[in-house]
Fold this protein.
Amino acid sequence: MNQTVLAQFLLHVGDSQLILSHRLAEWCGHAPELELDIALANIGLDLLGQARTALSLAGEIEGLGRDEDKLAYFRTEREYRNLLLCEQPNGDFAQTMVRQWLMDLYHLELFTALSQSQQADVAAFAVKSLKEVKYHLRFSTTWMERLSLGTAEAHEKTQQGLNQLWRFTAELFEQNADEQQLVAQGILPDFAPLKAAWAAQVQTELQRFGLSLPDTGAYRSGAKQGLHTEYLGFILAELQYMQRSYPNMAW
Amino acid sequence: MNLIRHCLDECWDALAQVSDPEIPVLSVLDLGMIRGVELNAQDEIVVRLTPTYSGCPATDLLKDEITAAFQSKGLTPVQVVVDLSEAWTTDWMSESGKQKLQQYGIAPPQGQSHQCGTHVALSDGIRCPHCHSQQTKLLSEFSSTACKALYKCQDCLEPFDYFKCI
């Protein structure tokens, strides 16, 4: 029971990293500058590496003989557990930066807390990821500053990106009843204080950026039930094409 | 006992010959990627390797190269295991490694990893590996590989890579 819950949680974390990494890789060859192209690909690569660790660990704990590739390439949309925020289209560069900044702050809280996990492999994964996330956050924060405090057009586009994405942030620290048992054992942290810390940080920063939260509020969720927006199917169609067409092919 | 000692010495010699594919002047030992070499209960040689960055594509290649290097010296059976704990830090890079980086045209990491916090600007005064000027400017936090940032020297005007301190 506990093993299944922990495996599902790691899939939630790893799938989010994998899908966000895929979205960032879509910028390759299209970013506004060569340096940004390289930066987005580099962040995507870090996230892909973290996803590999999370999925491998999920597979081991689950104990059904599924490795990282089996999990990434042979699960359907309904079996994916990633946050809806990660699968949202890139939009313009400002929208991509808003998504990245929200996710970086989320990862910062999540991995800081998971670093204390009583499960040694989970803690090691968190410590490793945290180092990389701090660097990503430095990048996304700088760009949030430049865009929101720059020209009127850049500011407007950043605000639009936030308006577009905010509704998907409701589920960032959702914790289900099964996971509560792992909280009691010190394997997972209690997410409520993490969410409060994240929200406070976002509020303070948005004030500094002169950006405001949209009236619609945050309300969409579905990650942990595998209920996705229309976009995930298209991502998986591309991501899984080779393995679906030629199962178990290798380079 | 002496035999085991001798065997382990040979292992470390073999590891010194395995270099990073992107930065060939550095061995896996210079990078501080080897966390231990041991004989397990089955008399197999176990090499514990820690990746620099989670997504570094060189990790899989290095596993293969270490295995090949050991096999060519008859150091078998060998297995290379990836060890994530503790997380790799540039503090583990050897002093000679840092000098080799400098000579190769990459500025070595400056400072200790605990000083590199979330909002700290990338350290000022990164020394240009070509003309040694400290009048340099950050161009991009990300460069040709995950482990480097891109700088430009204001004096000799050459761009150069800086090995990030993490």
User: Anything to note?
Assistant: Chain A is about 65% helix and 0% strand.
